[in-house]
Write a structure and sequence with these properties.
This protein has 379 residues and is an alpha+beta fold. The protein has 8 helices and 26 strands. Strands 14, 15, 16, 17, 18, 19, 20 and 21 form an 8-stranded antiparallel β-sheet that branches. A hairpin with a 2-residue loop joins β14 and β15 (210-214). InterPro entries: FIST_C (IPR019494), FIST_domain_N (IPR013702).
Length: 379
């Protein structure tokens, strides 16, 4: 597995110094992460295709691009991969063609041949797709095959996102990339690092990802009460105070980011479902714990027998980027130190992340985590 990390800036391609010598015409898979405004260009897909004419090309809009150990905005970065014995197959659907995100996910996976399927990467629209239903459908279709990925971003505007496969990116697109063969090792890690506070409460009224009542009280009013003076800065401060949600039947909680506050109708909209009966606790940012969590995610994504990954794919949450502010590079720098500075890193800041818990199981929808997938192809 040979990996090259490049960026396209001011109409010029440049290669990161950590890159290996992948010939553009030999790349089999190219993943592009870019600001939405760049992907809206009518010419950008053609530019990428011209550089990598034989590759399957997936493109995804972001809330920030991870270019090895730095975080950038308003750029296009790409990783070009050449495999020795692994092959890839791709498929895509558009959510507008389905009644639900669950149905879209199942149809998406049905397009992949199941024999020798080792791993699936999913890049999804982050605005029109219900992420909770998406991961349920992915699990239903994938079975025990490892699935990781993320939902596209749009610079924390939460208006619309773009994803594409072998064509100009569009709203509503979901892409899956299947990796086949027995020589590919894939490891994953995901960790948040947020502090819980207050008593555990129960969701008593919600519809999908819209929360109305907790313990039979108006959820928005209760949320403001817990935030105290920080409530004055809503909706912006909501990113600093997500919700820990233990869904009925689940053993572990997931984190849910508040996307918007509706003052007129007294409810909150989250990045994933908050079903009735869920146990919830409020959370707040702890800078040191966020940074430590990034290192923990990298440790879980480490490979056995001290093998160094050929590539690590980082998908972190836009909420973390807002908390870190100008110190955002510290998160990816620590991941680089943990995995080894010679390991190429690439990725993006997302509206949500997809990964199993660190001890395995089905894929989950996460918010406010650093999620890492590392790859190594056996010789």
């Amino acid at each position: 597995m040979i990996v090259s990390i490049v960026q396209f800036y001011e109409n010029v391609w440049s290669k990161h110094k950590i890159s290996q010598s992948v010939e553009d015409t030999e790349a089999q898979l190219v993943l592009c992460f870019a600001a939405k405004e760049i992907l809206q260009s009518d010419t950008i897909y053609g530019i990428v295709e011209a550089k990598f004419p034989q590759a399957a090309i997936a493109l995804c809009s972001t809330a920030g691009e991870i270019y090895h150990d730095i975080v950038q905005d308003n750029t296009l970065i790409a990783v070009a991969i050449q495999f020795s014995d692994t092959r890839v197959e791709t498929a895509s659907v558009n959510i507008r063609d389905f009644n639900s995100s669950f149905d879209a996910a199942e149809q998406l996976i049905r397009q992949l041949v199941p024999e020798d399927l080792a791993y699936m990467l999913v890049l999804s629209d982050g605005g029109l797709v219900n992420g909770s239903e998406l991961v349920k459908g992915l699990h239903a279709g994938a079975g025990k095959v490892l699935v990781t990925g993320g939902l596209a971003g749009d610079a924390a505007k939460f208006k619309s996102t773009l994803v594409g496969l072998n064509q100009k990116p569009t709203e509503g697109t979901i892409v899956v990339i299947g990796f086949y063969g027995k020589k590919l090792l894939v490891a994953h890690g995901s960790k948040g690092g947020w502090d819980r506070f207050g008593l555990e409460k129960e969701v008593t009224r919600s519809v999908g990802n819209v929360l109305y009542e907790i313990d039979n009280e108006n959820a928005l009013a209760l949320y403001k009460k817990y935030l105290g003076t920080d409530a004055e800065n809503l909706p912006g401060s909501a990113f600093f105070f997500p919700l820990s949600v233990t869904i009925p039947g689940a053993e572990k909680p997931v984190v849910r980011t508040i996307l918007s506050i509706d003052e007129a109708n007294n409810h909150m909209k989250f990045a994933g479902d908050v079903p009735v009966g869920s146990k919830v606790r409020f959370m707040k940012a702890n800078f040191d714990r966020l940074t430590a969590a990034a290192a923990t995610a990298a440790q879980h994504a480490s490979l056995p027998n001290e093998l160094k990954p050929d590539l690590a794919l980082l998908i972190s949450c836009v909420g973390r980027k807002l908390v870190y502010g100008p110190r955002i590079d510290e998160e990816v720098e620590l991941v680089s130190e943990t995995l080894g500075k010679q390991v190429p890193l690439v990725g993006f800041y997302a509206n949500a992340e997809i990964s199993p818990f660190n001890n395995g199981g089905p894929c989950q929808l996460h918010n406010q985590t650093m999620t890492i997938t590392s790859f190594y192809e056996l010789p």
